[in-house]
From TrEMBL:
This is ABC transporter. GO terms for molecular function: ATP binding; ATP hydrolysis activity. It comes from the Bacteria. SUPFAM superfamilies: P-loop containing nucleoside triphosphate hydrolases (SSF52540). Residues 4-241 form the ABC transporter domain. The lineage of its organism: Bacteria, Pseudomonadati, Campylobacterota, Epsilonproteobacteria, Campylobacterales. Belongs to the ABC transporter superfamily. Keywords: ATP-binding, Nucleotide-binding, Transport. The keyword Transport applies.
């Protein structure tokens, strides 16, 4: 069974088509990376999945329902969340926002707080629960936002450029985390410009430039090379990933 089914979907502003004849079946066991040029329609497709806009033609179903009817099933992690450096909101409070609909008389329950702490533990940020979100690095903040999505009990996480402005090592740490979350049964759909990193984690890659082209990934071949880099080298950058070649020439 496919959790997300898109059939003959098109969308445009006025007479200009942004997406044309999109077809997709997504199973939550897959780690799907969506790539493509700026203006190619990636963000528009994400908004359709989130139910923020409605396709002009075709259909999209998530667990057999329209996106507007399954908002609790999808956990959204945006590319950029502005932080007011003077507002003293804690990491735990940020994660608890994933439970905002569970508040009783304006307060979070004990169970909500336990779930938030468990989500922070899953992303390795439990020690920072009482710190201000403004005190954290970019990579640490992304982990907290992922914890917030997990805390909402979402079945599929949608992430828009989750490693923007993070160095290569930080990107690897975030994608390691997402891969583990995927292995534990939650769907992962990532929109990314970090093509060389994200493809090394994806089981499927969709390229959107008005139309969608899907690519299956040879997981075993990909994992063998990437694991070699991580285990045998202290340096990993886009050069090795693009060329599929390392300095030791042993792979």
């Amino acid at each position: 069974m496919s959790e997300i089914v898109v059939k003959d979907l098109s969308f445009g502003y006025d007479e200009n088509l942004v997406l044309e004849d999109i077809n997709l079946e997504y199973n939550k066991n897959d780690f799907l990376t969506i790539i493509g040029p700026n203006g190619g329609g990636k963000s528009t497709f994400l908004k359709i999945m989130l139910g923020l806009i409605t396709p002009k033609q075709g259909s999209i179903e998530i667990y057999g329902k329209k996106p507007q009817d399954v908002s609790s099933i999808l956990g959204y992690v945006p590319q950029f969340i502005p932080i007011n450096e003077n507002f003293p909101i804690s990491v735990l409070d940020v994660v608890l926002m994933g439970k905002i609909d569970k508040k009783k008389f304006g307060f979070y329950t004990k169970e909500c707080k336990e779930d938030a702490l468990e989500a922070l533990k899953l992303v390795g940020m439990e020690a920072c629960a009482k710190r201000r979100i403004s005190e954290l690095s970019g990579g640490q903040r992304q982990r907290v936002y992922i914890a917030r999505a997990l805390c909402s009990d979402a079945k599929i996480l949608l992430l828009d450029e989750p490693t923007a402005s993070i160095d290569t090592q930080g990107q690897i740490e975030i994608y390691d985390l997402l891969k583990e979350i995927n292995k534990n049964g939650k769907g992962i759909i990532v929109i990314s410009h970090d093509v060389n990193i994200s493809i090394n984690y994806a089981t499927k890659v969709g390229h959107i430039n008005k139309k969608l082209v899907m690519h299956e990934i040879d997981i075993e071949k990909k994992d063998n090379f990437f694991n070699h880099l991580r285990e045998e080298h202290t340096h990993i950058c886009d050069v090795e990933l693009i060329l599929r070649e390392c300095s030791c020439k042993n792979y």
